[in-house]
Design a protein that fits this description.
With about 170 residues, the chain is α+β, with helices and mostly antiparallel strands. About 20% of the residues lie in helices and about 55% in strands.
Length: about 170
């Protein structure tokens, strides 16, 4: 009876670990990256080929989510929300294309401040070939500068990349 109880307990523990897909350092990497993202709270500006771009960052949900609002002179406003999901750092981008891609941080480099997000899935896609943001790279250079790089996909392939260098204004 004792062996059976031990076996069942062990199987339940193994299944729980596999379901969570946890690596010992993954949770701390994601948490450290999210803590660093929280330092972005404030207002940022960049000069782009399409004019002045602005980002504002604010915390919500008791500090469990970071909301990024993006506006540009010639484009509708967009929003991206960053949050932890267990050992994962996730973003959801509410795009002017009318869809909502989700991405997961797959590479986190605390030395360079670079976080690379890769596509997980997308909701409200108009058709299988419709365009959506697929990957994003964010580089937190210092407390006053950040770079962002968004990769747009259409018909299953990369169509263009949007790059911007932002400076904190508040």
């Amino acid at each position: 009876m004792q062996t059976r109880h031990f076996l069942i307990t062990g199987l339940v523990a193994l299944a729980t670990l596999q379901a969570a897909d946890l690596k010992p350092d993954a949770r701390s990497d994601a948490a450290a990256a999210f803590a660093r993202l929280k330092t972005l709270v404030g207002e940022w500006e960049a000069d782009t080929k399409d004019g002045k771009a602005r980002l504002t960052y604010e915390l919500t949900g008791g500090g469990t989510a970071l909301v990024e609002r993006q506006s540009e002179e010639k484009m509708p406003a967009m929003m991206t929300v960053y949050h932890l999901d267990g050992a994962r750092l996730i973003l959801t981008h509410y795009c002017m294309a009318g869809n909502q891609p989700r991405m997961q941080a797959r590479a986190i480099n605390p030395d360079t401040g670079e976080i690379q997000f890769q596509f997980l899935d997308v909701t409200n896609l108009a058709s299988p070939g419709a365009g959506y943001m697929h990957n994003m790279r964010l580089r937190l250079i210092d407390n006053s500068h950040l770079d962002s790089e968004w990769q747009f996909y259409e018909n299953g392939a990369s169509k263009f990349t949007e790059l911007a260098h932002y400076t904190r204004v508040r």
